[in-house]
């Protein structure tokens, strides 16, 4: 149980970057934490992650953090945190802040809620309560940033990415990779169609 709480806290820590951007942009107004800074920090995070994953998978790097925070099935494959960092980086470069920020919040905050609702049981298709919980939290995270239809579309994208786990070539597609991309893509599409 303590390990799951640790994983969820690490997951939620991903909200600090978009939150810092929002606080600087809308509260402090210092202009120090711009979207360009967010992009630069995600690239730096991606480079560090790539080095750590290469060292872990191919160089024999072992650390107590890996033992505690990675799952057994990640021992010989790219870990979920690397997918998380990769998708976050792509999201901040591919989408405007008003779409990217709530998409990152969905990954950082809604996904752990979904995990709690699922009881950490792997299912190719999640239980109904997981779909409902993920949609509700994702919608609440998106609505302050975009219109009602766009928030619903983003929540639907995040929920679909979280609740349906496709298996490609024997590997489960990690929702850390898909949640922000599906959510941001759906919000962008909804904004372009209905505003």
TrEMBL record:
A GO molecular function assigned to this protein is: ATP-dependent diacylglycerol kinase activity
Lineage: superkingdom: Archaea
Protein name per the record:
Dolichol kinase
Instruction: Please give the start and end residues of each transmembrane region.
Output: 37-58, 78-95, 101-118, 130-157, 177-194
Give UniProt keywords alphabetically.
Kinase, Membrane, Transferase, Transmembrane, Transmembrane helix
Q: What is the organism field in this record?
A: Natronomonas aquatica
Entry annotated with the keyword Membrane: yes
């Amino acid at each position: 149980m303590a390990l799951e709480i640790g994983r969820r806290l690490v997951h939620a820590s991903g909200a600090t970057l978009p939150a810092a951007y929002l606080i600087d942009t809308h509260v402090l107004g210092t202009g120090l934490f711009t979207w360009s800074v967010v992009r630069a920090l995600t690239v730096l995070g991606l480079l560090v992650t790539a080095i750590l994953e290469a060292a872990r998978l191919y160089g024999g790097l072992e650390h107590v953090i890996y033992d505690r925070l990675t799952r057994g099935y990640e021992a010989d494959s790219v870990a979920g945190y690397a997918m998380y960092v990769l998708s976050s980086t792509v999201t901040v470069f591919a989408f405007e802040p008003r779409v990217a920020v709530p998409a990152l919040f969905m990954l950082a905050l809604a996904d752990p809620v979904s995990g709690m609702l699922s009881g950490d049981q792997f299912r190719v298709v999640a239980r109904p309560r997981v779909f409902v919980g993920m949609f509700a939290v994702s919608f609440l995270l998106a609505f302050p940033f975009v219109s009602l239809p766009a928030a619903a579309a983003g929540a639907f994208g995040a929920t679909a990415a979280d609740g349906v786990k496709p298996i490609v070539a024997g590997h489960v597609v990690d929702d850390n990779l898909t949640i922000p991309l599906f959510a941001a893509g759906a919000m962008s599409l909804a904004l372009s169609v209905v505003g």
